[in-house]
Amino acid sequence: MASPTIKDVAKSANVSIATVSRVLNHSNTVKIPTQKRVLEAMDILGYNRNEVARSLKFRHTKTIGIIAPELSNIFFMEVVEAMERCLAPHGYSLIITSSNDSVEEEKRKLQIFIERNVDGIVVMPAGAEGQHFLTKALSKIPLVMVDRCIEGLKVDFIETDSRYGVHQMIIALKHEGHKRIGYIGGDLSIHTAHERLFGYLAAMKEQGLPVENRFVYHQDAMTQASGRYLIKQVLQEIDCPDAFFIANDSLHLGATIQAIEMLSASQLDQLVFASFDYLSYAPLLKLCHYAVAQPSDMIGEEVANLLLERLSGNWNDYPKHIMLRPEIKVVRANGGVPYPMSN
Amino acid sequence: MASPTIKDVAKSANVSIATVSRVLNHSNTVKIPTQKRVLEAMDILGYNRNEVARSLKFRHTKTIGIIAPELSNIFFMEVVEAMERCLAPHGYSLIITSSNDSVEEEKRKLQIFIERNVDGIVVMPAGAEGQHFLTKALSKIPLVMVDRCIEGLKVDFIETDSRYGVHQMIIALKHEGHKRIGYIGGDLSIHTAHERLFGYLAAMKEQGLPVENRFVYHQDAMTQASGRYLIKQVLQEIDCPDAFFIANDSLHLGATIQAIEMLSASQLDQLVFASFDYLSYAPLLKLCHYAVAQPSDMIGEEVANLLLERLSGNWNDYPKHIMLRPEIKVVRANGGVPYPMSN
DNA sequence: CTGAAAGCGCTAACAT
DNA sequence: ATGTTAGCGCTTTCAG
Question: Which CATH number characterizes residue B85's domain?
Answer without folding.
Answer: 3.40.50.2300
